[in-house]
Amino acid sequence: MALIELGGIERIFTLGDSQVHALQSVALRVEAGEYLSVMGPSGSGKSTLLNLLGLLDRPNAGRYHLEGRDVTTLDADEQAAVRRERIGFVFQSFHLVARLSAAENVALPLMLAGVPAAERHARVSAALRDFGLEDRAGHRPDQLSGGQRQRVAIARATIMRPALLLADEPTGNLDRATGQEVTRLLEELNAGGVTLIVVTHDPAMGARARRCIRMEDGRIVDDLRQTPADTFANP
Amino acid sequence: MRAADTLRFATRAATGNPLRTVLMVLAMAIGVAAVVVLTALGDGARRYVVGEFGALGSNLVIVLPGRSETGGINPGSLVTSTPRDLTVEDAEALLRSPRVTRIAPLLVGNSEISAGGRLREVVVVGTSSDMTAVRRLDLAAGRFLPREDLRRATNVAVIGATIQRELFGAEPAVGRLVRLGDRRFRVIGVMAASGQGLGMNTDEQVIIPVASALAMFDTNTLFRILVEARDRSALEAAKADITDIIRNRHAGEEDITLLTQDAVLETFDRILGTLTMAVAGIAAISLAVAGILVMNVMLVSVTQRTAEIGLLKALGAEPRTIRNAFLTEASLLSLAGGLAGVALGQGGAALLRLAWPVLPSWPPDWAVAAGLGTALATGILFGVQPARRAARLDPVQALAKR
Ligand SMILES: Nc1ncnc2c1ncn2[C@@H]1O[C@H](COP(=O)(O)OP(=O)(O)OP(=O)(O)O)[C@@H](O)[C@H]1O
Ligand SMILES: [Mg+2]
């Protein structure tokens, strides 16, 4: 059973009189544990696709099965539950809650899931340790560097042990070295079994993925699978 | 999300923006404090009046000529068509009831008084010797009207404290002659100053025998008869006796109205109670205004925290969770405002009691409860719309907002 099965996906935005076809007859099959990069020019529909995969948006037409389950027909609460339990998001702009500490930000998904405070505390401490943030637990986002912020965001995205990790330009706001560090972190998580889909403008980063998808005008125009050997051949 | 977490999350959100929170709490607090202080004042006035009347003696029955359907004071009971005169003989007849200890007929009119070249308007009260006992009045000098036949028009007068001061200054008035209308009266007593009491104020009155007053105003009918019952428990029986006696004397017609202190008190109690409620209502309007402020502040808050709401949705928050978080925040703010308002209001009431010790200005419990309740209710009511707006936000657009 594939983790993700998309077929005939259409997403049309209506702006006044004009219509934007953000996604056109998109079909995609992703197995559990895969590592995909999505690339393409600005406005080609990468973020729209990612939002759809993350159940933040609904297609106008088409099928979407996640872990064998048709998720397009779920109601708002059921979709929220799927997001909470199965999907993690990492954003370009981190999206940390400014008034909450790093630990509290990481604890948010657990809190929303109704996990008791004691268990929450233990899991957050463990996660902060895993991401090398144990001495930053009490810091607020504005007291952290960009790389640290994104690490907090990744810790938050994975604290519920999701099956699918979606990252929309996760290194877009970071310098090169920090970006590589974050990329390595995401790849480690993928090595641990999480399916990873990364939208990026960085060819180097895109090329690291075992499967590269290229989008243009709302269509998938290229779907390149490469063996680990290829990865080294195309730096 | 657990209730405790919702509460903590909302508290953090509220304290995360102290200025906004303080302003909102203050707006709420002022509304609640206004309710508390104004009702304290109103209720203080009510208790003061009730207390003053209670001190006048509670076994008093007031007989009015004319029939009125209601027991209390209303415009109708004061201006009724009088089918038959209420006479001095009627008043005397009331003494036949064993439950009546004293009576005092009362006739009131306006006239001019002059003495030693000075002239002024006065209220002339015609009554009898028992008036002082019935209404608990004190004399400053001389004596009150002599005990004599109610039909004897003796030319003696007892003057009020103000009249004494204005006509005679520091000189003693007792024994002096005054002119009332076209008659001459000898002053035999001066009433003690009434002070600020709400009872009968005699300061600007001249009291003369009822027969003299009847002659002076050329009338046969009394304005009132004040009847003192033996004691409080005999009040109802005394009223029945009075009704019987007058009906017999008035050819079977029940053409009088009986007022008791209780009824008068009740009326005042009701009027001032209503007044207090009205004042509380007006103050509650400021709470509604505060409620609208809560709504606006919460709407701004939703707009400012759009990205956060989008994030929460991405992390799997259900619409209900987000709605509850914002509603809890609004409720917390109004609860804080309400409690601060009660504290502020109690402080204000304490200041009132300090400034006017005669008024027992304690806010009634219902007003405190209503103030708090209204604050909470408006907070929640006006918090609903922003909370729903937050819950309905589209997550993609919310996340795109910076
Ligand atoms: N809410 C919306 N309303 C109208 N049009 C939209 C909306 N969201 C996206 N679009 C349009 O859909 C198309 C795809 O947008 P999308 O954000 O997916 O592009 P993208 O590939 O992520 O671009 P970028 O690399 O710049 O992030 C664009 O033409 C965009 O203008
Ligand atoms: Mg994009």
From TrEMBL, chain A:
Residues 4-233 form the ABC transporter domain. Keywords: Antibiotic resistance, ATP-binding, Cell membrane, Membrane, Nucleotide-binding, Transmembrane, Transmembrane helix, Transport. One of its GO terms (molecular function) is transmembrane transporter activity. InterPro entries: AAA+_ATPase, ABC_transporter-like_ATP-bd, ABC_transporter-like_CS, ABC_transpr_LolD-like, MacB-like_ATP-bd, P-loop_NTPase. It holds the Pfam family ABC_tran. CDD domains: ABC_MJ0796_LolCDE_FtsE. One of its GO terms (biological process) is response to antibiotic. It comes from the Bacteria. One of its GO terms (cellular component) is membrane protein complex. SUPFAM superfamilies: P-loop containing nucleoside triphosphate hydrolases (SSF52540). Belongs to the ABC transporter superfamily. Macrolide exporter (TC 3.A.1.122) family. This is ABC transporter ATP-binding protein. It comes from Pseudothauera rhizosphaerae.
From TrEMBL, chain B:
InterPro entries: ABC3_permease_C, MacB_PCD, Macrolide_Exporter_MacB. It is found in: Cell membrane. Residues 21-244 form the MacB-like periplasmic core domain. This is FtsX-like permease family protein. GO terms for molecular function: transmembrane transporter activity. Its main location: membrane. Keywords: Cell membrane, Membrane, Transmembrane, Transmembrane helix. One of its GO terms (cellular component) is plasma membrane. It holds the Pfam family MacB_PCD. Residues 282-395 form the ABC3 transporter permease C-terminal domain. The chain crosses the membrane at residues 21-41, 271-295, 330-354, 366-384. It is a multi-pass membrane protein. Belongs to the ABC-4 integral membrane protein family.
